[in-house]
């Protein structure tokens, strides 16, 4: 009997939460501490298996003989097929009229070599999932949405006025030209929406930890937002390989080769979401307005609630090919791929004119074979190496927060704990997520996260310390 196929949400725990409007009034008692941070304390990975797993250690206790966690490559073997547009969308007369009247605005664009992806995934056991990914790349992906919900208008403009400084204006113009050269954004079609179109706001914001800018599509804006059309039960819980998976891989390597030294490597896909085309009936909804002119965005966008699920599915299939067809043990976290190699085991990667750890070079060669875009500056290796924001030492067996990260966290906590401080719910969620992340490397901190998320539920409200 074959493996039972199930959707990822089946493995995601559900819990009942209080009212979204419940005020954050619960008190949390803590003991005083002498130091503001953990100093040089590190989360040491013990090679020896332990019988007990204290709750505060969460997932940060590994045993080399334990069954490894399911990684994204293996997840593809049981994942359900991705969604296709329902017949109500495909048979809508107004939508079809606009698509047929303006075919130049709507195109399927991707750099991926779909035929090669199909050939290399021919032995994959989960044909339904594989075919859905291939169909999405050929015909465009559908984000599990119902655009014809009761009360929603056929056509809607949610445009917001952009106030940009000269640097932002230059970036926006340059970015638009780049996207049009790549074929991902159409030429202007005037100032008036056609039947069936939606226009959502877009903003120019600073990139985190960078002096560059980033174009963001706000698909949650307004009462008829695109994200509100998406059925969220189908986009939650998509897997990501994380530090727990990396810890298990390190321990396995050390157990198999106890006398050898290793280095870590990390590779990054360029403009990751944008390699996934969207179905033409969804492209109708991805109209943007720049300087009053309207354009169609043809591909997966940052800001879509279904965007991560779509890209993760594509990248997970590529990770499966890397593992099962090329013997590359790489882990995948959204657009980051990372792994280990024996120190000194290298091979030349000709396009960049330099040598990389063998498995990293082989992954780059596979990406070239499949048409996956990447840039040299994002392909790094060494020991220790920052992976997912954490300094990983694969020989010392330590995960460490950088001094800069610890100082930033302490500063934010000090600012947030001032009496009378008010912050938006989104800001508290960011702090809570940051603390949750810190638990990966400093589990002894044991912050009271069990009540934190219940406190900050309630979109658009403020919480008071």
**Averaged pLDDT, please?**
82
Count every helix, treating DSSP H or I runs of 4 or more residues as helices.
13
Second-tier CATH architecture of the domain at 74-238 and 272-312: Roll
Cα-atom radius of gyration: 24 Å
Question: Main sheet: which strands, in order across?
Answer: 1-16-15-14
User: Which stretches are poorly predicted, pLDDT < 50 over at least 5 residues?
Assistant: 1-30, 33-38, 45-51, 455-465
Give the strand tally. Answer: 18
CATH superfamily of the domain at 74-238 and 272-312: HIV Type 1 Reverse Transcriptase, subunit A, domain 1
Overall morphology: globular
Q: State the end-to-end distance.
A: 56 Å
The level of helicity is 25-40%
Structural class based on helices, strands and sheet pairing = alpha+beta
* Biggest beta sheet summary: 4 strands, antiparallel
Q: Would you give the CATH topology of the domain at 74-238 and 272-312?
A: HIV Type 1 Reverse Transcriptase, Chain A, domain 1
Work out the strand percent: 5-15%
| The level-1 CATH class of the domain at 74-238 and 272-312 | Alpha Beta
């Amino acid at each position: 009997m074959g493996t039972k196929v199930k959707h990822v949400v089946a493995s995601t725990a559900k819990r009942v939460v209080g009212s979204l409007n419940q005020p954050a009034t619960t008190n949390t008692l803590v003991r005083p501490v002498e130091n503001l941070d953990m100093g040089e304390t590190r989360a040491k990975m013990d090679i020896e298996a332990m019988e007990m797993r204290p709750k505060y250690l969460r997932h940060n206790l590994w045993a080399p003989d334990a069954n490894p966690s399911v990684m994204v490559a293996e997840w593809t073997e049981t994942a359900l097929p991705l969604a296709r547009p329902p017949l109500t969308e495909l048979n809508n007369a107004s939508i079809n009229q606009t698509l047929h009247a303006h075919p130049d605005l709507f195109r399927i664009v991707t750099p991926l070599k779909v035929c090669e992806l199909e050939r290399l995934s021919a032995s994959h056991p989960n044909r339904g999932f594989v075919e859905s990914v291939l169909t999405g790349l050929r015909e465009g992906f559908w984000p599990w949405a119902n655009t014809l919900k009761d009360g929603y208008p056929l056509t809607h403009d949610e445009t917001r006025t952009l106030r940009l400084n000269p640097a932002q204006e230059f970036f926006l113009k340059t970015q638009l030209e780049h996207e049009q050269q790549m074929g991902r954004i159409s030429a202007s079609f005037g100032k008036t929406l056609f039947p069936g179109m939606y226009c959502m706001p877009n903003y120019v914001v600073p990139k985190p930890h960078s002096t560059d800018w980033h174009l963001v599509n706000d698909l949650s804006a307004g009462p008829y937002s695109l994200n509100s059309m998406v059925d969220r039960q189908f986009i939650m819980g998509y897997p990501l390989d994380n530090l727990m998976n990396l810890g298990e891989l390190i321990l396995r390597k050390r157990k198999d080769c106890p006398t050898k030294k290793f280095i870590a490597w990390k590779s990054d896909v360029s403009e990751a979401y944008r390699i996934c085309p969207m179905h033409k009936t969804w492209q109708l909804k991805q109209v943007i307005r720049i300087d009053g002119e309207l354009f169609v965005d043809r591909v997966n966008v940052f800001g879509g609630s279904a965007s991560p699920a779509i890209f993760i599915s594509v990248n997970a299939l590529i990770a499966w090919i890397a593992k099962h067809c090329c013997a590359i043990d790489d882990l995948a976290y959204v657009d980051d791929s990372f792994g280990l190699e024996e120190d000194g085991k290298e091979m030349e990667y000709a396009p960049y004119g330099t040598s990389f750890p063998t498995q990293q070079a082989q992954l780059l060669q596979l990406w070239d074979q499949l048409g996956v875009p990447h840039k040299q500056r994002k392909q790094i290796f060494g020991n220790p190496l920052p992976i997912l924001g954490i300094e990983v030492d694969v020989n010392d067996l330590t995960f460490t927060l950088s001094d800069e990260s610890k100082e930033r966290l302490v500063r934010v906590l000090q600012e947030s704990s001032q009496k009378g401080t008010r912050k938006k719910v989104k800001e508290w969620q960011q702090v809570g997520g940051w603390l949750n992340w810190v638990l990966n490397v400093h589990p002894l901190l044991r912050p009271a996260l069990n009540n934190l998320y219940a406190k900050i539920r309630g979109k658009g409200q403020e919480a008071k310390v």
